[in-house]
Amino acid sequence: MVVLLLVVLPRHAHGNEGSDARGTEEGLTAMMFPRRFQSLSAAMLLTVVFCDGLQARQIDVVAGEGVQAAIDKAEPGDVVRLLKGKHNGAVTIDRAIELIGESGAVLDGLGSGNAITVNAPDAIVRGLEVRGSGDNMPDLNSGIFVAKTATGARVEDNRLIDNLYGIYLHGAANSIASGNEIIGRRGVRMAQTGSGVSVWNAPGAQVVGNVIRYGRDGIYTNASRKNIFRNNVMEDVRFAVHYMYTDDSQVIGNVSRNNSVGFAIMYTNRLKVLDNVSDGDRDHGLLLNYANSSVISGNRVIGRMQPIDRWLDAGVQKAEHGLPTEDKTEALAGETARLGPEKCVFIYNANKNKFTGNSFENCSIGIHFTAGSEGNAMSGNAFIHNRNQVKYVGTRNLDWSVNGRGNYWSDNPAFDLNGDGIADSPYRPNDLIDKVLWTAPQAKILINSPAIETIRWAQTQFPALLPGGVVDSHPLMKPPYPADAAKGKPND
Fold it and tell me: Residue limits of the Carbohydrate-binding/sugar hydrolysis domain (predicted)?
């Protein structure tokens, strides 16, 4: 075997395939192997030739030459490298090759179709600037479109600019989009833009470490399962992560800044939503709509004063997802800034979820809890400096503590005489007056009147007057993690 390799490999390394070489090879074979072993030696020779043929080649493409022609002559495992300069698309990858670019290589789709279409399993697109897809929304025109047949394909470390959709994983199981910078279209209506990364029916797909700005949604997923969305940063979009009908998946360590909604989890079951940050989003940090049996832990939602212009050009229509519309959002006389998000968390008909170790800070409302949501466990969370910690208009009594451990409330003037870290009396975030103000906002003009103060005093003296609602029977005396932590992490 060793001798055969020494004889055969130089032949292919030097491309010598003449008749003299073949005769020499046959003579050596006859001398080295008895006749009864010659058929075996021939089989080994074929094996070596086959393996040698799979060695990857690199095909360099100069700007202005045909990229598709280079792809068409490549064999599986080859590398097609685009040299610096502008290369015109659109191209289709129909074999398991790597399409890469040296620094400064740009592939331009010239405004038609997909700039790059990936059809082959295990193909790789890496290190390119990709721009100029078409604008046909029904055809899902994308910078890089990964089709159902491209299982295990990877789209890595690219820069995608001015495409309708950035990357579209369309049915490609176990595909990966990682380390890409995606800049969507600006100066057009929301309906005329696509999402940074879209995932449709792609089980096992991963979207990791991407930076996405502008466009419709940062990451949009629909009708999929067992996906991972981790360590992405999304700014200036509608929803940072828009989740529809995607079960048994993970949303971990992502950052949403200056979007309409941070993380919109809808019609989905059994998710892990862990260690994400919503910083300065406008309407909601976390939105759960028909989301069930999930774990929401270690997340942080931070509200900030924001220019009123953000409300004058609303980028989210709640009614399109069956959510109730909000009060009028136009600016009041003299209003130049407004606190956002309006709600750190909006829970709408979401059931059997576990909220623990989260921080909800400086929003108009900490949690709005509505539409018959049942069986949700709330413990170990921190509600810090929200104007209204909780909005719940139901009449049922809900205890937001689990196994003797509740949540931290920054406005709870409590005592802890035995020093166990649990307040000595329950905490109620709302009273009868709150419910009156929610149903009749005009009553705010009476908020400091003697009548209102008398009613609130009476409720403290006679708890039976308190309406049903949220009560924390074991409130915490301090946040369960450092208040300045980047992401909420329980200490215990």
Answer: 74-222, 228-425
Task: Please name the amino acid found at residue 435.
Answer: K
Mean per-residue pLDDT of the chain: 83
Task: Let me know: does 332 contact 299? Beta carbons within 8 Å.
Answer: no
**For residue 71, what are the contacts with CB-CB under 8 A and spacing of at least 6?**
80, 91, 92, 93, 94, 95, 97, 99
Taking each helix axis from N to C end, the angle separating 432-439 and 450-461, rounded to the nearest 10 degrees, works out to 140
What is the spatial distance between Cα 316 and Cα 337, in angstroms, rounded to a whole number?
A: 19
173: preceding bond cis by omega (within 30 degrees):
no
Report the pLDDT averaged over residues 121-150: 98
* Percent of the residues in the chain that have a pLDDT greater than 70, as a whole number: 75
Q: What is the arithmetic mean of pLDDT over 28-36?
A: 42
Q: Is the pLDDT of residue 50 over 70?
A: no
Residue 457: what pLDDT?
Answer: 56
Which residue ranges make up each domain of the chain? Answer: 2-53, 437-466
CB 175 within 8 A of CB 152: yes
Q: Is 444 exposed, middle or buried (0-12, 13-18, 19+ CB in 10 A)?
A: exposed
Calpha distance 91→75 (Å, rounded) = 16
Instruction: For residue 406, give Cα distances in angstroms to 7, 192, 211, 337, 391.
Output: 76, 46, 36, 34, 18
Cα radius of gyration (the chain): 30
Per DSSP, 402 falls in state B
Predicted pLDDT of residue 392: 86
Can you tell me the distance from the alpha carbon of 401 to that of 81, in angstroms, rounded to the nearest whole number?
58
DSSP 170-223: ES-TT-EEES-EEE---SS-GGG---SEEEES-TT-EEES-EEESSS-SEEEEE
As given in the structure block, the two tokens for residue 480 are 């369960």
pTM of the model: 0.82
